[in-house]
């Protein structure tokens, strides 16, 4: 089955559909007023369990002190800060708009790498970045039918989450030895994030008891954590088996599925401006995605669509 020519497509479609559903699950997780720090704190606990299990099954270390610096950076830039920005913004936006903002990660990643001289300037990809900016402007310009008068602020906060994920991508690609196992890095980073987040949640009096996981928002968070973990594992396997360029097409599916899951689950209705933003974003992604076949030799060859 894995040798079938359509199998790689099945992989990115599956990963994209799962990742896309997490935007709707985020709305469920934040629907009852739980504090974003409390939600994120439980997510890193569940994430630690998931990736530690992956490590134990693969018989690789769960935590190595020599990688502590990597864990710290990933815990701050790739987990804690973007999670808080995302969960603060989620209750104020639709699942479709959340998927559009977070799906700008490949574009922002390329822009950062270009600014740091890790990438060469390619006119087509620059144009793709500009289209990504246009897609966001189509969301935040006033008088476009957004229901919340403060929606622009929340869109920018969700976009901050995308920027942080992009910084994480650049760090993974250029600050970490490509031989380091992603499962171990994610297990270690989530463990460090627990130490960062849970004491703060308790100190500020916003921590939720373990029984919260049995509520609808808690179960939605479980779905986010394990769904994202499985999707990431599928995505990583696709990179190794089919190359980073092919795997990067998953971003298109994440964008579309995020919008359509919102329509299916919450009966969301979007204005022409939101649909225009989706179309412009997809065109921008096509332009930013490299069209040259790349052999997977370094972690910098892939960009995580969503954490």
List the helices and strands and how they pair.
Blueprint: H1 7-29, H2 36-58, H3 68-89, H4 95-102, H5 105-115, H6 123-140, H7 151-175, H8 182-203, H9 216-242, H10 244-247, H11 250-266, H12 272-288
Helix pairs in contact: 1-4, 1-9, 1-11, 2-3, 2-8, 2-9, 3-7, 3-8, 4-7, 4-11, 5-6, 5-7, 6-12, 11-12
Structure description:
The longest helix is centred in the last third of the chain and has 27 residues, at 216-242. Helix 1 crosses helix 4 and helix 6 packs antiparallel against helix 12. The protein is built from 12 helices and no strands. Helix content is 71%, strand content 0%. The model is unreliable at 293-303 (pLDDT under 50). The protein has one domain (7-301). The chain has helices at 7-29, 36-58, 68-89, 95-102, 105-115, 123-140, 151-175, 182-203, 216-242, 244-247, 250-266, 272-288. With 307 residues, it is an all-alpha fold.
State the domain count.
1
Straight-line N-to-C gap: 28 Å
Taken as a percent bin, the fraction of beta residues is under 5%
On the 0 to 100 scale, the average pLDDT is 86
Q: What string gives the helices and strands in order?
A: HHHHHHHHHHHH
Helix content: over 70%
Biggest sheet details: none
Number of helices: 12
Low-confidence stretches: 293-303
Tell me which oligomeric state these chains represent: single chain
Secondary structure tally: strands: 0
The helix-and-strand class reads mainly alpha
What overall form do the CA principal axes indicate?
globular
